[in-house]
């Protein structure tokens, strides 16, 4: 799990907390090599499910803000292991908030998801769209949001809260330093981009498209794919715009929906491989069509997605994949 804190030291050094259950120390080392000055990027191997450890970390450091990214995040897996998701997402967020309250940390940037909306009746999705999540992942995230919002309403909390509801993240570091490589046991639950690349590399015999009977133009799911580079920029702008005592909730997406079929065709072109595609019944917990209206984040944070060419984002990610068939070489665990 990942927790990112900004320290009140003169260098404003970040501290990265992760239990590495789905992360990789190799990725930490990549980032530390980019910022080699002593203490510039601190890493602590700890679990948000351990309140004593979390409180000790807060007590031993002075933080201005918390960026809370930590979560297990596979829709399909959440339908098979719902309790794990409620513990990991909802309960652990409560631990973070309690530590922040105890140690008087007033700013929180929270990673949420479009899965909290479920399957809305109208598109595109705005921040006022009713939230009716249909899978444990979305439900756990909405519960965490509710807890954060309830706490922020307390006069004594005086919290600055920014909730970013991600749409479907794709892409890779354009400099080729970091990329997506889920552990083998999670490939079945993973993102479509990872499955496409696995098929292109011959790691799996072909791509499994689950659901071709949705009420969409070509029968496959429609999603809003946001490049990870744009997502990083959204977090920076959210932190810079955070104001004491105020709450901001923002959709982070391109505003354009792409079908699974469109995605597969773009991946074929990006990789140059004619990927074999097999069709299967729908996956439990999925929804037909979800894409954002990013007007609020455009207006209030001056943020607009810049990397909107699907094929180009996939080409950048494919470049990393070809060079890292086994993920990060100095560890058996993986990250994104």
UniProtKB/TrEMBL annotation:
Reported cofactor(s): NAD(+)
One Pfam family this sequence matches: Epimerase
Keywords (A to Z) from UniProt: Carbohydrate metabolism, Isomerase, NAD
Pathway membership, UniProt: Carbohydrate metabolism; galactose metabolism
Residues covered by the NAD-dependent epimerase/dehydratase domain: 39-253
EC category name: isomerase
SUPFAM superfamilies per UniProt: NAD(P)-binding Rossmann-fold domains
4Fe-4S as UniProt keyword: no
Alphabetical GO biological process terms: galactose metabolic process
E.C. number(s) listed in UniProt: 5.1.3.-
Molecular function GO terms recorded: UDP-glucose 4-epimerase activity
NCBIfam families, A to Z: galE
Family: Belongs to the NAD(P)-dependent epimerase/dehydratase family.
Name of the protein: UDP-glucose 4-epimerase
């Amino acid at each position: 799990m990942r927790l990112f804190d900004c320290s009140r030291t003169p260098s404003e050094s970040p501290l990265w907390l992760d239990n590495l259950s789905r992360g990789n120390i190799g990725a930490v080392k990549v980032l530390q090599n980019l910022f080699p000055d002593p203490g510039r990027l601190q890493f602590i191997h700890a679990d948000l499910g351990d309140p004593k450890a979390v409180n000790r970390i807060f007590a031993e450091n002075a933080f201005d803000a918390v960026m809370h990214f930590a979560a297990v995040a596979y829709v399909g897996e959440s339908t098979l292991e719902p309790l794990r998701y409620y513990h990991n997402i909802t309960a652990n967020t409560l631990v973070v908030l309690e530590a922040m309250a105890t140690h008087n940390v007033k700013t929180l940037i929270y990673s949420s998801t479009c899965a909290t909306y479920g399957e809305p009746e109208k598109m595109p999705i705005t921040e006022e769209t009713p939230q009716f999540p249909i899978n444990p992942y979305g439900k756990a995230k909405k519960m965490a949001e509710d807890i954060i919002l309830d706490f922020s309403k307390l006069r004594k909390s005086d919290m600055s809260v920014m909730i970013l509801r991600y749409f479907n993240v794709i892409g890779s570091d354009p400099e080729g330093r970091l990329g997506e490589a889920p552990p083998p046991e999670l490939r079945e639950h993973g993102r479509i981009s990872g499955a496409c690349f696995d098929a292109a590399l011959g790691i799996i015999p072909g791509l499994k498209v689950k659901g071709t009977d949705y009420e969409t133009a070509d029968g496959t799911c429609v999603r809003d794919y946001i490049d990870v580079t744009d997502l990083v920029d959204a977090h920076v702008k959210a932190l810079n715009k955070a104001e004491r005592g105020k709450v901001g909730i923002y959709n982070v997406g391109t505003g354009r929906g792409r079908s699974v079929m469109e995605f597969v065709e773009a991946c074929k072109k990006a990789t140059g491989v004619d990927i074999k595609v097999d069709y299967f019944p729908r996956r439990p917990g999925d929804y037909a069509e979800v894409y954002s209206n990013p007007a609020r984040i455009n207006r209030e944070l001056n943020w607009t997605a810049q990397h909107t060419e699907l094929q180009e984002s996939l080409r950048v990610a494919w470049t990393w994949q070809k060079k890292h068939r086994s993920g990060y070489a100095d560890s058996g665990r993986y990250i994104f």
